[in-house]
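Service request form, structural biology core

Requester: graduate student, group of Dr. S.
Request type: structure prediction, single chain
Budget code: on file
Notes: please return the result as structure tokens.

Sequence provided:
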Amino acid sequence: MRFFALILLAGAVTVFMRLPLQLAFQAIAFGDPGLELVAEHENILGRIPDRDFGWIYGLLPLLVGKLWYAVAGVSPESFFAVSLVCQATFLFGVAQVARVAQFGVLARTMLLVSCPFWLPRGGMTLVHEIEPVLLVWALAFQLAGQPRWALCLTACCVFVKPSMAVVFSTLLVGQILFLPTTIARSRTRELLPAGCCVVGAAALLAWIFGADALVASLYPAQAAEIYRENNFGFFRAGRSFWLPEPLEARYYLTRSVAGTWLILTAWVTVAAALALASCKRFPSERRAAIVSLTAMHLAFIFLFFGNEHSYTYYFYLLVLAGGLARVGRWQPILLVITLWFLGLVIRQAAVARVHWAERHPDGVTFGLWATNDVRTEWAEVLARTSSGKTAILSASEGVTLLTDHFGPPGLSFADVGWNTREQLDAKRNDLRSAAFLVVPLEFQTRFHDRERSPLREELRAFVPVWTGRHFGVFQQPSPRE
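Core staff response, request fulfilled:
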């Protein structure tokens, strides 16, 4: 419990450092976090994912959201509250992993020092809050020699996000069927609890959301389209994380965690190879865990990596693998990495201090954090568009749930593969009848391209009337009802 208290404290400090960004007006109103508000708004109204609104993840987070937001209401504050609960549960799971795996002082110190980098960033969607909780607790059960209960958690996680959970589930099934176990039961019976979880969850979700939505969520073809259209991948859009241009040593040493990420990747890969080759050096549970973590990390690199910011999603798996990897004379590497993380955290704290100094919550931005120039420009936007119907076109339309200035949300997310045909038609009608169009300039997507956007015909009717650093206002001379 002492280590849990320490890691909970490290998590609290991390959340405090991130607070001006996690509750940032622009991010919630126009960026990725707005997706959560829009999706849960549609969900609370009883609309069906993949039929009435676009959704590329599993259905279990929508079920959790339906229960939570029905009580707390759909708002940035209620999402922040449930995010804190998920992060505390996740940190408890990390502490449990460290306890069961008997992490030494150095490995525990590395976990504490590097917390600002591996603690999942709250405020994206419930998907990104629930998935780490299930995966890290599954790892704790695996290390405790109970792979069947670990498999139950990863099987449920498939209904949260059918990517890494599928990889971990496959590894656990292999462990149960092909590796020696200490439980005197048939190996196929060990799969029974997970099978019950799958059947039960699938039946419940199909009953609430429909079989078609369930099938679509388990095989999200839209996700593959999004990756293809955005050129996502470790060697494509993600390349600038590990091989930036221009190439500078200080980028790896002081400006980014890319250096520690690359060294940890190489180190845990060697550790996994040694674990497979030497049964005496690694106990069976530790061997299974280090191989699982390394396999998941490599799957992330070659299958799931998106853009240059994607490394944050599963960094905790890599750091936990580093704590598990006790490779004899290579152990001093852990000390170097810990000190390296410490230097990066000091720089991160300086950046956080700037965010706290420059951003403040304000009524103009609905109690969310913003800089003075953003607040000033936003007030100008509202004043200039007060005389007629106003539409919004940004990455997400979370702002429509903060004010009635723009009407109800139209798109789930303004990008290819995210929206149903009905949503696109509704957005076209919204634009045709609007006198003004507001565009947050830092949250533009291909939907803003007047040549390639599926909304290009409607966008061409608008002419610019005012442009600031953060927002642009456009006017349509002859709105169509």
